[in-house]
Amino acid sequence: MRREGSPWTGLWAVFFKEMADHLTGLRMRILEVLILLSALGALYTGSQALRQTVGEDPFLYLKLLTTAQDPLPSFVGFLSFFIPLAAIALAFDAVNGEYARGTLSRVLSQPIYRDALLFGKFLAGLGTLALLLFALFLMVVGLGLLRLGVPPGSEEVGRAFFFLLATLGYAGVWLALGLLFSVLFRQPATAALAALGVWLFFAVFYPILTDLAATALLLRADPFDPESQLRQAQLALWISRLSPNTLYAEALTALLNPAVRSLGPILITQLEGAVLGTPLPLSQSVLLVWPQITGLLALTLLLFTGAYVAFQRQEVRA
Amino acid sequence: MMRNLLALLAVLWSLALAQQYRGLALGTAYPEIGVQPGESVSLTLTLKSYGLPPGVVRLSVPEVPAGWQAVLTGGGRLVRAVYLNPDQEASLTLRLQPPKEVKEGTYRFLVRAEGLGQTASLPITLMVGQGLPKRLSLEAELPVLKGPPTSSFRYRVTLRNESDQDLLVSLEYQAPQGFQVTFTPAFSSQQVTSLPVKAGESRDLDVEVSLPKDTPAGAYGVTLRAVAGDARADLALTLEVTGRPEVRLSTKEGRLSGSVTAGRENAVKLVVKNEGSAPAKNLSFSAFEPSGWEVKFEPEKLEVLEPGQEAEVTARIKPSPKAVAGDYMVTLRVSGDEGVSESLDYRATVVTSTLWGLVGVALVAVAVLVLGFAVNRFGRR
């Protein structure tokens, strides 16, 4: 059966309606307050630590984002914890909620394609998160200006832009996952639990499993043979890179710390004659994490495609 | 006969007695001397008694030309009388000071010693205007020295005052443009341009000639001159400057950093310049690079580089394909005959190829294509 008409018809109507629902909904309010408060706390303690310890740094704002002071984690630490939660919270009842309320057939009786409905829901979630991230970033700059008294440099702004992009890609993965589960499971609670389970699996259990998997897959690792150890470390790294958490963490490391030159194990011969501690140019840092960023984007697209295919094959007139 | 002999003996005896002088002797080494106009003279007088009992001898200068001052001193004080033991000698100084404007001519003085029943007098004549002319001489121990332009040429020179008065000698020199000459008294560190030399004495001087580093090889002459009034002395010194090559290495635009792509040859233009004074020969290029890197030079060797000339050399730096992005130090070196060696630290920022970035873009494009295919395949009303 060939499709008729453009899949974009009605996209913007769905997008703006969903966006308005998100931004006025109580669920988003709670999340916003949570994120804002924790981010403020992290930034405040971070800037406090910076003012006491750092005399001069060309990347002061990046330091502000990554400096942690006990007992609070750093700003990016908070963000990498809250972003998946917020994304799942926005998407877990996107489709099955409509079923539950019986509003799906009513929406689809309008001149809106199913494609547009799913696109709009996804884009609205992404737009809400982007708005939240941008507001957070402006808050960081404002607080930095207030507390540190130094304007951010162009290199820092560029790095922050790519940091936001990577964060958005990471959020997109969890948003698409939440959307997929909301299509697959009829009960919103089941979808939420499943998505949170996946998140917990990648956040807590996956790092433990990678080492085990690498040892299991490569039995020849000999403690007296450095080469086999290197092979095992590389295998473990590649397995861990299947997790979006690892991809995001690596992207953050290279983008927010300009002195990072490589994300894997490197041989001492590769560092011969190297001037250590010098910052990489932004283009090189981006090139270093380009696979991670594109991996996140591609994963988002594939998860969304899965949700799309599942949704298109569903019976909606229930 | 006998009587004659006795008479002869008596005469001889009296002669011998006459030889055995008894009395006062007043003398000086040179009682007639020539002096320059305006010069005051100090004469050393000796007064001795021969066979006289001890006693006081009075001294006076009865004859003094008009305007002159004559003062007798002994033991640092004014003296009018001397106490003499038998057969003893006393030393006195007669100081003769001319009036302010003294004419040339002959001036006579008389010094008299009276006492112990004896009198001794000493006439002294000063011939004003008939002194020795002022004369200086300069001599070098080693008047010809040889060395590279960076070394110091140090001559030991003796300045002699060959006149009869103290002179204030000023030192001058004539040297080629850019040469600097300094005078230092021997065993001293202070530089001087003039120095006093006493009559008849000499001073040793260290004369140091420093010259521009780019002085071409050759022989150069420096003339020293000591001047005191009309008196002057010249001394010609010779410097035999040997040339020395001095090579400088830099990049063409002077930047010592640049980006290089990992795994590819990156050309860096270098400029070799000979800033010395002799041709540099057999210049060869080498590099100290991180392992796995390759550095080639084009040309690999330069046979000769004349002073003041520069040559362009291309260094082809090929970082290891596995090089991690970031900054590395690469040392480029040129070395040649006669100890010529110069190195250059080049900070190479390794840039990784953007090929993998394109692969990432292709990956995303594939994902978009899958989505587009799904929209096409499963899209329905």
UniProtKB/TrEMBL annotation, chain A:
The keyword Oxidoreductase does not apply. One of its GO terms (cellular component) is plasma membrane. Keywords: Membrane, Transmembrane, Transmembrane helix. GO terms for molecular function: ABC-type transporter activity. The chain crosses the membrane at residues 75-95, 116-140, 160-184, 191-209, 289-311. This is ABC transporter, permease protein. It comes from Thermus thermophilus (strain ATCC 27634 / DSM 579 / HB8). The lineage of its organism: Bacteria, Thermotogati, Deinococcota, Deinococci, Thermales.
UniProtKB/TrEMBL annotation, chain B:
InterPro entries: A-galactase_NEW3, Ig-like_fold. The chain crosses the membrane at residues 355-375. Residues 159-226, 260-335 form the Alpha-galactosidase NEW3 domain. The keyword Hydrolase does not apply. The keyword Transmembrane helix applies. It holds the Pfam family NPCBM_assoc. Keywords: Membrane, Transmembrane, Transmembrane helix. It comes from the Bacteria. This is ABC transporter substrate-binding protein. It comes from Thermus parvatiensis.
